[in-house]
Amino acid sequence: MTATATETTATEKTENAEKTGKAEKTAAEKTGARTDEAAGVITGARERIDSLDDRIIGLIQERMAVSAVIQEARISSGGRRVNLSREMEVLDHYRQALGKPGTTLAMTLLELCRGRI
Ligand SMILES: O=C(O)C(=O)C[C@]1(C(=O)O)C=C[C@@H](O)C=C1
């Protein structure tokens, strides 16, 4: 891996650490990779994961808002917050797509959307 203008090289990190007394980790130290090439791949892929996680969190927040609309409509009409038969459908949907851990994920999503029961 070649150092670009924006990157701090391992030598510069050592110099910075000497000046400030604070050690700055190299890419290899941050990623656990044993080569600069692998460290580059990991750093790039981690940026993609961070961006995907931001989108997933945004979608979860959107799901919470839509779920709140449903719950409010049901409660205002005299019904209950929770609808267990619908929850079974949601759990099954996630289990079919992701297997057993999908059920756990769906249970967490439902708790985020309607609180603990
Ligand atoms: O679909 C509904 O009836 C909802 O209230 C939404 C939702 C959900 O977030 O998926 C939330 C609470 C219910 O217990 C079931 C499902």
TrEMBL record:
SUPFAM superfamilies: Chorismate mutase II. Residues 10-37 have a biased composition (Basic and acidic residues). InterPro entries: Chorismate_II_sf, Chorismate_mutase_highGC-bac, CM_dom_sf, CM_II_prokaryot. Its EC number is 5.4.99.5. Keywords: Isomerase. PROSITE patterns: CHORISMATE_MUT_2. The keyword Chloroplast does not apply. The keyword tRNA processing does not apply. Residues 1-39 are annotated as: Disordered. GO terms for molecular function: chorismate mutase activity. The lineage of its organism: Bacteria, Bacillati, Actinomycetota, Actinomycetes, Kitasatosporales. This is Chorismate mutase. Residues 36-117 form the Chorismate mutase domain. SMART domains: CM_2.
